[in-house]
Amino acid sequence: MEMKKIQLIIRDAGLGSRRAAEEMIREGRVTLNGTVVEHPGTLADPKKDHIKVDGKLLRPSDASKDFYLYNKPRNVVSTMSDPEGRPCLGDLLKPLKKRLFTVGRLDFDAEGLMILTNDGNLAQKLSHPSFRVARTYAVKVRGTPDDATLGKIRRGLSIGEGERIGDVSWSVVKRQKTTTWVKIVLFEGKKNEIKRIFFRIGHPVRRIRRTAYGPFNLGSLPVGQWRILTEAEMAEVFALLK
Q: Cβ–Cβ contacts within 10 Å for residue 113, how many?
């Protein structure tokens, strides 16, 4: 098997992102054939070499891959652990008894569709802006913005801190007396992007629910529940990322 950087082997084994793997190495938690690894770029053969993280042997990266859709509740951190002790995905997903990480994080107070997998390579592709994977949200905002106001939400809109939004589309779902539901589609994942967009046009966000991520739809999946991806869904995503 082709030699790979050890940080990528750790990522593909489902222990976290490439950056998380680099941090593990810096902390001295990774060994290669009994020797502590000092450099993330160290090469290894995931089939022949013995790679351990925190003393546990990694399984080969070509082992069975797991893919789930999950309906994240509000007020849950989108990580497997939280140093502040807040409720997190790791707590809720213990029954799965699998090492998984997330694709497309959601804010603490946001809800909706997330993808859980141990396939680091696919997770990276789904997350990277260059693959233009659409993220669709139902957003409840304060007030009743007219189309002219909402029309400010377009490519290049400044959302502060020197950042501008990329391609975006929107449509009004329902206008109520004091709030409005808007469907918005984005192709990137900037921090607090949706909140920053609507704050910029003067209509702060009250609620965010992600309803779709690429070809995956939340459908009727109950809050706090997960399901395995179907073969048809997997075929769609692999076609999308060719």
A: 25
